[in-house]
Amino acid sequence: MSVTVNFFSKLRSLAITLEKETEQLEHAFTNDEQEFEDESPMRVLHELRSEIMVLKGDLQNVIDKKHSRSQDLMAFIRACRKLQERTASDIKQIKDTFETYGYKPLCNENSGNKKWGY
């Protein structure tokens, strides 16, 4: 949950920054008394585009890392499930072997850990 909150807060701040820069550029183009006399609007636009490309690259790197981690976690969960199935099969096989030789559990089968009466 915190990953998505963090992502959308960064995205929101990026959108706000873009809106402010857009307003400044529009003001620079329409206002006769330009605040940016030293910098041409095209230069400001180019710098803004460069910053956006850097942020986009950073965001893509973060997304790639999160996706890689997600894939690793999914592989781990699959391995755990497979191990759980194998363990359950082994326990059933041991139970069947014990019952073959006449072992009778002391407790109810639904009682969890005390199933075999240890």
UniProtKB/TrEMBL annotation:
Protein name: Spindle and kinetochore-associated protein 3
Gene Ontology biological process: cell division; chromosome segregation; mitotic cell cycle
Key words, A-Z: Cell cycle, Cell division, Centromere, Chromosome, Cytoplasm, Cytoskeleton, Kinetochore, Microtubule, Mitosis
Family per similarity comment: Belongs to the SKA3 family.
Domain of life assignment: Eukaryota
Subcellular location: Chromosome, Centromere, Kinetochore; Cytoplasm, Cytoskeleton, Spindle
Segments traversing the membrane: none
KW Electron transport (keyword) present: no
Main location as per UniProt: nucleus
Species of origin: Hymenochirus boettgeri
A Gene Ontology term for the protein's cellular component: spindle microtubule
